[in-house]
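User: Structure please.
Assistant: Input sequence and predicted structure:
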Amino acid sequence: MFKAQQIKDLNDTELQVFEYIMNNSLIIPFLTIRELASVAQVSTTTILRFVKKMGYDSYNDFKYAYKMSMQDEKHFERDYDFSEVIDCLKKFDSDFYHDKFNEAMALIGNSENIIFLGVGNSGAVCHYGARRFTSSGKFAIAINDPYLKMSAVSENSLLIVLSVSGETPEIIDMVTSSKQGSCKIVAITTSQSSTLAKLSDLTIPYYIKKIGTEIFDLTTQIPVIAIIENLTTMCFHK
């Protein structure tokens, strides 16, 4: 329903609307334009500009199309919200994500090797990603040492950075340092407006509720693994 080029053309407040919709997709069909404007903390004029840029004449047209794009499912409370994860994964089979994956494949094809970067749970997934890419024929390594100097990264390397928030200070410092070597950067994070996203050449966002505290993070990594598996499968078949 959403295309990558359409999202690129959004300004900051319109992007705020997009990210609210992606994070709260189950309730969008039931919100009036004023209710959506209120919860997204923007004006109704911004909502109308957003739906116009998405190719719809009115908010009602957009809401109807959005509702039709979702399958009717019964959702009930549970300790682990499978429906939210499933809804997130379903979005990957859309024009918006197909464009993102193709852009990522172009960067992968132009690189000599891949460096995965992440800490904590993201760091653990980095090792899986590096192993998958190497198995698919593209050499990759994983780095999860937040104090490693990144300024020597070759411009022919592609840095794939995993971060739930996109605001982890150690990751931001390492990415900033790596840009001195002119390498390309792909971010996989929950927000296109995060600091990490702004530092990257390409951001593949996934929209899932963050769970945890300042001390520990329990946010699911399933969408990240799905993105990595899709890219490595594309790499293998290319």
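Confidence is low (pLDDT under 50) at residues 72-77.
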